[in-house]
Amino acid sequence: MKLEILKNENHDIQKKIISKIRDLINHKNLEPGDKLPSERTLSEKFEVSRGNIREAIQKLEFYGLLESIPQSGTFVANIGVTAMNGMIEDILRLEEPDFKSLVETRILLELKTAQLAAMRRTEEDLQEIKDALDAYSEKVINGEDAVQEDLLFHLAIAKASGNSSMNTFMLIITPGIITNFEKYHVCDKNQAFLGIQEHTDIYAAIRSQDPKLAKEKMKAHFKILYQYCYNQK
Amino acid sequence: MKLEILKNENHDIQKKIISKIRDLINHKNLEPGDKLPSERTLSEKFEVSRGNIREAIQKLEFYGLLESIPQSGTFVANIGVTAMNGMIEDILRLEEPDFKSLVETRILLELKTAQLAAMRRTEEDLQEIKDALDAYSEKVINGEDAVQEDLLFHLAIAKASGNSSMNTFMLIITPGIITNFEKYHVCDKNQAFLGIQEHTDIYAAIRSQDPKLAKEKMKAHFKILYQYCYNQK
DNA sequence: TTATCTAAATTGGTTAACCAGATTGGTTTT
DNA sequence: AAAACCAATCTGGTTAACCAATTTAGATAA
Question: What does pTM read for this prediction?
Fold first, then answer.
């Protein structure tokens, strides 16, 4: 409980620091390549710990807005003040994604990865998808829980898509999907049995290198989920 | 130069730690809820600094595989060994996305965000998109560089889509897109002038709440880019 | 024997000291 | 006057000490 509060406080502090950095860049008219004040200077100017400053800078570095060079300084990336302001505003605004956003995004990604996997899969990819499918089927037939095997099947397809961005994004949204699924108890035995057929259809389409069919079968697979989630709301 | 090497070494160390944690979970048959050895124990067992251990744990925490509780310990998340192994393998394998992956993913996301924005945009969203469009047009007409304003127009649409996951992903791929664009000098003056019309078309479709048209116009906008990027390869 | 309480040890998180390398300003040399 | 050099200073990065909360184990009391 207290953890949550602390973490939120910490998160708030980071947001405040980021907005102060933005204000500083605007006020001092810092242009691409200009150097920010040192971490120590900022920490006493903003009256926060140096660690907090470092975290904020690293976050802005992640989004490509700043660049830290050891033993030298932190510099404004090659991006103008306009885009800088717009992007920082976005970063500050971003709330934690709701379940609906996660599902919507997952479906979008999976329809594409299925399509791409059908186009690009190697024999090795295909074998891995097949293995995941078999593991899944076996668990379901034995009446065991197969959430993990289901997940691995989908991740195998993402891998076969040959697009590392989409693969990464699948991994990022996976935890949120799983926890929410378990919270809502979406998967029951009937759906699992139906899942075997749907998974098999998807696999077959990817094997026969039919992108359109793969997308179609993936869409069918998500149809129930999609409706279920939106009715839940 | 040396920075790169060091950073790669650091990255390698983290990967090694993550795979060692995976081995440990497998070897000790740690199940969901089980406690990992303390950070200090791990650091001397793996012969790395405690900071490295913390980074690796935080990364696995980000992907929902571990959970750290202050003054208590780090625990295996509610995810079985099968999925744990599969996901860690994926995490270790993920390479930096190439330009093609980035563009492919951006197009996928933007076609959807345009569509969703047309469905869900509020009056406020619409105004912000309009402002971004005007700022872009003005720069282009004055013959100035308008890369930033172009970017902000697209981010405004992502915001209006009402899907925070997609919005986040757009922000994540943006830096890679920008740096590569500048590297390849994609945008020239002619494209910028053409861009005004295309942007205006997209805006009009979103204003008139026509999802299908919005997607179509966005597709047209990306057509040149898409071909250009793939020809570049 | 069981339950309860207390103090010591353990935990993840945080802070302050330290490090190596880059920068800078002044000095010396040519 | 200009170039070369050098030491003091400043930088982000790293490490070790510290902290408060928690857990644990043993002593005590019922």
Answer: 0.90
